[in-house]
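question for whoever is on the cluster today: can someone run the full assembly for these? two chains, 413 residues total. i dont have access anymore since they changed the login thing
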Amino acid sequence: MSAEGQTTSEYIQHHLTNLHSGEGFWSFHVDTLVVSLVLGLIVFGTMWLVARKATAGVPGKLQNFVEMVIEMVDSQVKDTFHGKSELIAPLALTIFVWIFAMNAMDVIPVDLLPYIASLMGVEHLKIVASTDLNATFAMSISVFLLIYFYSFKIKGFGGFSKEILFSPFGKNPLLIPVNVLFRIVEDIAKPISLALRLFGNMYAGEMVFILIALLPWYLQWMLGAPWAIFHLLIITLQAFVFMMLTVVYLSMAHESH
Amino acid sequence: MNINATLLGQAITFAILIWFTMKFVWPPLMSAMEERAKTIADGLAAGERAKHDLELAAKRSAEVIREAKEQAGEIIANSEKRASEIIEAAKLQAKAEGDRLVAGAKAEIDQEVFRAKEQLRGQVSAIALAGAGKILGREIDAKAHNDLLDKLVAEI
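^ ran it for u. tokens below:
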């Protein structure tokens, strides 16, 4: 609900503004950083506790749940990625779980936490970290760097250069510029599409929640409940898509064309 | 759309989380899961083996029972034969014993009869003597007429 004296657009604007600290590039979205870090600590701390007490015998309910997630990630990675890597499966798990946790903040009523924060004197609070481009790009660019790291590591400088120069169209020298151009477009598209897909979906979802919150309170459930239920699907799906594409990109980096 | 240093902070958090998962979350859970999978596979294999063993044991036990039955039948037949043999032998023995007893008794009876006859003869001779003595009215010299008397006794 909009606070006293706020117009609708001001209300929306207020909800879409991060808690800011600093000016220019060297500034921080404190809410994004804190929320994602706290979620990371909670989720990965829980998984760590489970892992520490993990038993090969009959697992408890929590261990069973964590194992289900791990099993799902592991089977997806095994289906897609055929090399040997210590990193990729845990990386996929990290991505899936962390993004899921950040996305899941979206189903908390949009005004609840900002209202509590405002009582404590915090002016802006955006609790869904994945609606912040910085968070999504941080992940996609990290993945992008890993792609290049593994491309060089697996194929060597020569092999990777050859791949850039000669694929997808072939070894004809005349085709090299086209090949390189394609490669550049492809590689730039990877992190941008990863980051923007997640950001776009979550931002749009958040936006719809904000708009629903503008309705009279006795009507909100009519749209809010279906959208929240539908959004559960989007939350999971986006986390899954990000994870899958990361695994696919990294497996492409491991295989020569 | 404002990209700023948040991106770096997020990337650092991301890197730490990846490292943490790789180091502390994934390996222990994975090894526990693999160990459990192995345990289950072993258990299933053991179950299969036990089933096979059970089948073998059932077959063996059936065989043993069959053998035992055969043996028992044989033993019973033997014992029946033996029993009839024993009964037969006992019958023969009893008959022999009975015959022997009967023969003994007969011999005894004969002896008894003979003895009674002897006695009677003795008595008869004594009576005859007494009668003759009375008839003759005088004492007979028993010694002188013993020969005659003995002859008389033998004739009776």
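summary bc i know u wont read the tokens: The beta strands of chain A are 20-21, 28-29. Residues 144 and 188 of chain A are 9 Å apart (CA to CA).
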